Amino acid sequence: MGRLAGYLPVLDWGRRYDRQAFLSDGMAAVIVTIMLIPQSLAYAMLAGLPPVVGLYASILPLVAYAIFGTSRTLAVGPVAVVSLLTATAAGAVATPGSAEYVTAAITLALLSGLILFAMGIFRLGFVANLLSHPVISGFITASGLLIAASQLKHILGVEAGGHTLIELGRSLLPALPETNLPTLVIGGAATIFLFWSRAKLKPALEHLGLHAGAATLLARTSPVLAVAVSILAVVSLDLEARGVAVVGEVPQGLPPLSLPPLDPGLWGTLLPAAFLISIIGFAESVSIAQTLAAKRRQSIRPDQEMIGLGMSNLAAAFSGGYPVTGGFARSVVNFDAGAETPAAGAYTAIGIALASLFLTPVIFHLPLAVLAATIVVAVLSLVDLGALRRTWRYSRFDFAAMAGTILVTLAAGVEAGILTGVAMSLLLHLWRSSRPHIAEIGQVPGTRHYRNILRHDVLRSQHVLSLRIDESLWFGNARAVEDVIQRSVAERPRVRHLVLNCAAVNGIDASALESLELVSHRLAEQGVDLHLSEVKGPVMDRLAKASFLEHLTGKVFLSHHEAMEALAPEITRLADHADRPAMDASRPFPERGSAAG
Amino acid sequence: MGRLAGYLPVLDWGRRYDRQAFLSDGMAAVIVTIMLIPQSLAYAMLAGLPPVVGLYASILPLVAYAIFGTSRTLAVGPVAVVSLLTATAAGAVATPGSAEYVTAAITLALLSGLILFAMGIFRLGFVANLLSHPVISGFITASGLLIAASQLKHILGVEAGGHTLIELGRSLLPALPETNLPTLVIGGAATIFLFWSRAKLKPALEHLGLHAGAATLLARTSPVLAVAVSILAVVSLDLEARGVAVVGEVPQGLPPLSLPPLDPGLWGTLLPAAFLISIIGFAESVSIAQTLAAKRRQSIRPDQEMIGLGMSNLAAAFSGGYPVTGGFARSVVNFDAGAETPAAGAYTAIGIALASLFLTPVIFHLPLAVLAATIVVAVLSLVDLGALRRTWRYSRFDFAAMAGTILVTLAAGVEAGILTGVAMSLLLHLWRSSRPHIAEIGQVPGTRHYRNILRHDVLRSQHVLSLRIDESLWFGNARAVEDVIQRSVAERPRVRHLVLNCAAVNGIDASALESLELVSHRLAEQGVDLHLSEVKGPVMDRLAKASFLEHLTGKVFLSHHEAMEALAPEITRLADHADRPAMDASRPFPERGSAAG
């Protein structure tokens, strides 16, 4: 693949595009368009933006992704979690409904676009690894709950607001008595219908004789049915007069192409939020794209995905939209409906463009309660509290990171939540790393094998201490290794040689090298020679470069057995407990992972 | 060791204390006291505090460490880098010289004490691992340069200030014409004398027939000589009248015991700085303590060290002092002078107490330029620019973290510098982790051994892909592993079985488990069975808990050979290049560390 073509995947699949692909993509685009119209309106409302911004964000960004994206079936556009993040960030600098608020949302799209594009060019996709699975899963669960709670006001027809569960509760509870009954009926009915159709419509349609695939797709378009019926109800029963809030005037026409605002002060303020939106949007999107690609034994390129999503967000910023990313439900529908190439996304864009040209007068009478119902049903499917239980069973650490993320997100908002999650998972990883598994090893009698003395009946020498390090060495565990070696030697006064078995050491960073040099130096002062055995080739090259090997008091042995033959002709079963290293004694050295055998 | 005695090391060594130890400790204390008097005055000046605060910080904190510390020879007190951090933090909330400034410094000692004590109790010493060697070494080098630059004003006798090299330069350059000549002569002479005595005095004394040990110790006390001579010069030549700034009035007497200020607002503001002071002070101190302990085949307990340093700082806060930690030069002198137990520190405290009772009238005439000279000479010995070259040769990543820390510290101050260093080293570690070494392996003909196909002439099956993962799996590399597996399988359409050799996998966290589940699921949809081989016991237990093994499409084999015998009866030399996995193809998968053999 040429260098330029690598950045423009469209050149690759575009050359082979044929009538068959066009028909498949077109059919998928029709279904995704029908699904996306209510979604884009609803998520714009969730983001605190005028509904038309949602439509704008569903046109040019899709075209941009079709040109630059590597997934053949990812459907880009407004999504729930990113809309919530947008609402939080824009709400911090402007009042929802104001022109400044829309400007802030557009600026977020611009900054996210620039950040993603730059990270893609510089291949910085690894930064998304900062979000561990427990953190992102906890964050999405908590966001889903927050979003659902934030939509209650629309279903009840009352005024309320807030960015945390506490704020939402405080503003919603006193407003309950003012619930608007017609709104509640419409919103409640829509919610129940959507939940029912999500769970039961597909089997019901199949029961009526529909093909399984068709039934799935038809069931997915049920929000459009809810929208249509509710508009009819509002118009025919004149519910607006009875207090049912509706979408109202939506400007008719195509998105205005315009330069996004260039306000350095605003950029600075919104930069951290834009970074969060970029990383979270990317992490979610790439995981959807990878799952769908695998189903057809295709693959995606994460770094180019960053460029694709970056261009999408830039397109959003230049056409009055707000931050977008790949949406899960919509991508699955696109896939199931048979989309074969990213062109399906471009055709969807045409569909949405037509809708914003011709459908906006109809949308005027759409009740906000029904949009809220589609949001609630969509986001509650993201809530996975069972993951808490599963993670608890697997690992207490990961559970702590997940629970911390959920609690802080609910109690203090999305930004504090995700930052807490990242900080916790990094600290917990550091903690785990600071307890590397190190085993004293001895010879299995009659063989050339050396095994953990705690698990096997092995032979050792009084004068030679053999330690096997079961991790790569880096700054997270360098100090702990120093510490264990120091304690082990301090408690074995007769030891004259220490042999470190490095078979499992895949890398040694500068901190660990410094530690090894310190250890070597300190051991020399205690009259103990330091030897290494079974050092891997690349690690050896590194150590040689740093002239560590020149100052080594001992030798480097190819095999541990060679080392023991040279240093300890006499080996026995050491019985005296006091001669065990410190890590096995009163203050046990914690095990994590463990030695083979 | 009992639980209580663990927290009070004094109970351990105190029981065996005898006359011999008393004499050794007492002798060491005399020498350390002589060395510490000018140091404590100088570092207080560096911290922007009245000289007496330095004396106060060298009395009760030493007694507290003698009771709670685990190092037998560490000498606690004011040190250069912590003084600089104190000046930066206190300078952000108050004007140097004001009562509020002293209050801020005392509050920093209180908060550091509480933080260190709590971290010690909860065994959180691993947090210091956030500071990698390149970061801390770069930080100390840059701090040394900053401190030396900040003292130039005293040696020149001009007014200047600033927290970065740029600020210092900007305020110092215009002031140069106002240089006070007598001050420059005294300060310059002291600087030259101290540099000379550091390098040449010891050999000169030995040449005069002094014992090597005595010569070393005597050379270390040369700052006291500079102090004494300069006081004589000031008094006899009446240099104060000619513009030489002196220490001036120092309150005579013992430190006032008092409650530190309880101002929640101030606590909140100073907390981040206090955290930095705690972590940096601890990391430095524990490394000195460990080095000295090793020389006598003793060991220290890092968690108890946190408690010891925490109590020291609390003692400083309750007696009008400022943050303290273990000092390098002073601890080495204590060790060389023969200190046997922490009691030496308590005797030093008595020495400093006597000094603050009786010596303060003498100190009145001590020129600030001489104090500045002792600081410059002390901190320039911390500057190690050669480490940049050594680190560059060993690892570009570690070099980047070190250079970034130095540059940001010099250009934007100590707090920005250390935060940049920590963030860079974590991100670089993540980047390294996001490129785990994964090798396709094949059978060495005629053996049961499997080796990297890129390094050995091995046999493979068309239908079975064998990958060996050479790292523990965690959230930093989980996505990359997914990615490699996905690409490998996508480019090998005939593959029906994937066997992951897990011999080098010491742990799998929840993110990596999720990735493995995704991989397994995606492979199933492509008609590829996932098998594992040589899984370690504890990892196996984990996987079983998560019910991963129940959903596994393939099997878990004890040895890789067993797997190949069961899945691939026919193996050959695969020649077709197209059949190689993606990672070896056009976009090579970067190698780091590498396979054994």
How does this model look, in words?
2 copies of one chain form a homodimer. The first copy, chain A, is mainly alpha-helical and 597 residues long. The first copy, chain A, folds into 2 domains: 408 residues, no CATH class; 147 residues, 2-Layer Sandwich (Transcription Regulator spoIIAA). Chain A is built from 26 helices and 8 strands. A 6-stranded mixed β-sheet of chain A has the order 4-3-5-6-7-8. A two-stranded antiparallel ribbon of chain A has the order 1-2. In chain A, β6, α23 and β7 form a beta-alpha-beta unit. In chain A, α6 runs antiparallel to α13, α7 packs across α13 and α8 packs parallel to α20. The C terminus of chain A is likely disordered.
Give the tags.
homodimer, 597 residues, mainly alpha, Transcription Regulator spoIIAA, 2 domains, six-stranded mixed β-sheet, two-stranded antiparallel sheet, 26 helices, 8 strands, elongated, disordered C terminus
Strand proportion of chain A: 5-15%
Query: In terms of structural class, how would the helical and strand content of chain A be classed?
Result: mainly alpha
Task: Please give the most extensive interface between any two protein chains, plus how many residues each contributes.
Answer: A-B, 91 and 91 residues
DSSP helix count of chain A? 26
Beta strand count of chain A: 8
State the assembly state of the protein chains: homodimer
Shape of chain A: elongated
Largest sheet of chain A, in brief, is: 6 strands, mixed
Number of domains of chain A: 2
What Rg of chain A is obtained from the alpha carbons, in whole angstroms?
31 Å
Strand order of the largest sheet of chain A: 4-3-5-6-7-8
Name the helicity range of chain A: 55-70%
Low-pLDDT sequence parts of chain A = 576-597
Query: For the terminal residues of chain A, how far apart are their CA atoms?
Result: 46 Å
Residue-averaged pLDDT of chain A, rounded?
A: 88
